[in-house]
Please model this.
Amino acid sequence: MVPLKRRKVPSSASSDSSPDVACKFPQVVLFLLERKMGSSRRTFLTDLCRKKGFRVNETFSESVTHVISEKNKGDDVRRWLRSQGHDLTIAHLVDIGWLTDSLRAGHPVDILEGHKLHTTDYTQSTHKLTSSGGEVTTRSIPAYACQRRTTLSNRNTIFTDALLLLAENAELSGDDGRGLAFRRGAAVLKALPEAVTDMRRLRGCPCLGEHSLRVIQDILETGVSREVESTKQSERYQAMKVLTGIFGVGLKTADQWFRDGIQNIHQLRHSGRTLNRAQQAGLAHYDDLMQPITKAEADVIANIVEEAVQAELPGSQVTLVGGFRRGNPSGHDVDFLITHPQEGREEGVIAKVVSRLEAQDFLLYQKTTRNSYMKSNDGPARPASSMDHFERCLCIFRLTTGEQHEPKACTQAPGEDSEGRASKRAVRVDLVVSPFSQVAFALLGWTGSKLFERELRRWATREKNMSLSSHALYDNKQGRYLKAATEEEIFAHLSLDYIPPSDRNT
Ligand code: CTP
Ligand code: MN
Ligand code: MN
Model:
């Protein structure tokens, strides 16, 4: 949030101000740029502002705090100010949207990302010349990933793969900030409707820092990024990727093992390390868990889970969430959200479902965590974190492919391959239980992608002064929780256009 500048304001009403209406906000002095706005609209808006108690100056001077323009690019407004001999740092340059929001609110509102004038205007289509002399149209790219639609069709995988590898490497080195910067850059490229063939296409795009741009330029010029290639070859990157890829192994453990000379699965197996229960399961099923899960396999698991939940708590609602809800054809696990319309009935359902699945011999591993969420009347104490507190179960399923849940028209016995052997595999499954009153938040929080979730929370905090979690939305200004029964209502509370799950693939 940009704080409003406070400056000395002449105590007597300036000759610019309307003499008959009291100025309610003496620390704010507006100047409306006539360029493109036109003089009659400018007069109309000036009168309106003054009626609402805003101070408006007819001419630009040092006392102006906000320069308001309409349909202007930031560059053009700056050039105009400079041509008038003014310093660019003295006032906020804002779009007309800030003024209409302020008039509606009845007071000067905080300057949000969407109110600022950008160097290059990407709120409207602009036209640029390409090297071949043809025109390319650049379109709107808002700064937050949750303001954009990102489908699975990505025209820039050559660049996004590179940036995501560097993100992964940064995170494996404990540098989450840098990782996030690369992820945001990659997300912008994913949202572009066409393949990038020219660096000039990226001018004015948000979230692409110097480093990301250098990587893209390398690839455009030589086909590869040297930095990415050398990262891929790096011993530490390779080892850390393998070790953290084991279910139950986090960054700290992997780092310790690497420093002790363990670089791969084989070395770990023969190292004599004591592994916890999760890590033992992760190692035992390593090859299976590395195999992507297909949508067909996810559907088989969905049938098993649905059957078990309905048997233990009839009337429950089971929803496939995570990547499969976003339309991904494959995933690293299968995520389910469970709730019951009668609040309270959902409590303890996981334990019953797990016992049932265990008796049916479906579970190779499970760890259940109880619900620890406490709603406080004073709102969330800390900024809403990415961790939630639902009752949940991380498990590994034994999936028998070609089994009775998906009958096949062949002579093969269920669960056997063509040579009569059972074809079984291990699959990671997450079960989460939400009270019915929180289910819209849980659904939004567990659908992902992870970056989309982060961006939603960042938007809520920075642009709306709200705290969003997978449990609730708290409005810090009003000092209360905002209710929502659907994802659409949450987007509306956040003043965001609704983005369906298939377009959250940031
Ligand atoms: N999630 C969460 N808390 C966790 C783990 C996951 O809130 N402790 C959320 C993530 O933010 C994400 C969703 O659950 O929105 C799914 O996470 P995950 O299964 O890791 O990723 P997917 O998007 O489903 O991708 P994949 O196909 O790789 O599983
Ligand atoms: Mn998942
Ligand atoms: Mn998951």
